[in-house]
Design goal:
Length: about 110
């Protein structure tokens, strides 16, 4: 059976935790490897994911932690969606929309 290994780097801006991790991981870049095997029973090339691991570096040691790729994707989306408190909110940020919505409640409307 033919197998292949793909590797990519993901970056977290904030600390994160995935299932199976013993502790919160610091922000930074992490290598994620996915192993797939080729399906031989069909007439076109297709691959089935068999394993996904993340490299967790702690000083001089590296731990290879199996992860769920869907959970990783959700964690990356959550990380991107969080706003950095050091950066002022832009006009389309959730905080700015909330402030505008609160302010518009107090605007006196003209009766017709």
């Amino acid at each position: 059976m033919t197998t292949r290994m793909t590797s990519k780097t993901v970056t977290f801006q904030r600390p994160f935790l995935l299932a199976g991790f013993s502790k919160m991981q610091p922000p930074g870049s992490y290598t994620v490897e996915t192993e797939e095997e080729q399906l031989d029973s069909i007439s076109f090339p297709a691959w089935k994911r068999t394993m996904t691991i993340m490299h967790l570096k702690d000083g001089l040691t590296t731990e290879y932690q199996p992860i769920d790729p869907d959970e990783l994707q959700e964690a990356l989306l959550r990380d991107e969606a969080q706003e950095d408190p050091a950066i002022p909110p832009g006009p389309d940020s959730a905080a700015a929309r909330h402030t505008r919505a609160k302010a518009s409640r107090f605007v006196r409307r003209k009766a017709f």
